[in-house]
Amino acid sequence: MLDYLLLGVLQGVFEWLPVSSEGILTLVSMFSIQNPIDLAIFLHLGTTLSAIFYFRNELWDILTLRNKKLLMFVVISTIVSLVIAFPIYLFLSGISAYYGLFLLLVIGIALFVTGIVLKRSEERGKKSIDELTRKEAAIVGILQGIAVIPGLSRSATTITGLLLLGVEQETALKLSFIMSIPVVIAANVFFALKGVTFELGYLLALLTSFVVGILSMHVLITFSRKVDFTLFCWILGALATATFLFVVFFNV
Questions:
Q1: How does the average pLDDT of the chain come out, rounded?
Q2: Half-sphere exposure of 72 (CA within 13 A, CB side)
Q3: Dihedral pair phi/psi, residue 150, rounded to 5°
Q4: Worst-scoring range by mean pLDDT, 7-11, 176-180, 226-230?
Q5: Looking at residues 128-152, what average pLDDT do you find?
Q6: pTM beyond 0.85, yes or no
Q7: Which residues pair with 167 in a beta bridge?
Q8: Helices and strands in the chain: count of H runs, count of E runs
Q9: Which of 43, 120, 136, 223 has the highest local Cβ count within 10 Å?
């Protein structure tokens, strides 16, 4: 049971950072869990529930049509993500994670570049959700969709894309977290229909990832408010790059 507890903690922390879920799968296999892929799917549901809880007010505004701009963004990005992700998943299922890990390195570099752009231009990083267009929502949806590639981080791609579109930093984090909710739910439904089975220990891991996911989201958003976001981008970029180097050089 301690293995499941630890894995729940890891999922709760790394889901929101530019670290690929492939890293989580690797850690799961190290602990000899019987069905590591099934568990990874289930743990993503746990962190999705934490996002639902954390952003319950924003989600309520969407459901009651009080925030039509956010509704537009979520609907368009979700549809585009699913249209992009499903054929990529079918085509690349079983592909080596190194292809995605190379893209993760590209994303890490992009985050460094994003930090430089933010540093040099005061006009960057000021756009609110109300200023996002349908085209920009579709662009971010594409970025989220291609994150289905093994080794590529969904958080890293969407946060980078939103920042380069000029979205205000805290808003970029929130949108990245919120837009993951319907996509992960759809993925869990898809895999459930394929007959995925779960063990009792999964429930402990689910609860742990839910609680830790809420805490890590809060810490990340609070941290983004208090530091120069240029530094924040560079830290995220360093994490993405370090993940790539760790997996490649240690062959995990």
A1: 78
A2: 12
A3: -55, 130
A4: 226-230
A5: 87
A6: no
A7: 127
A8: 11, 0
A9: 43
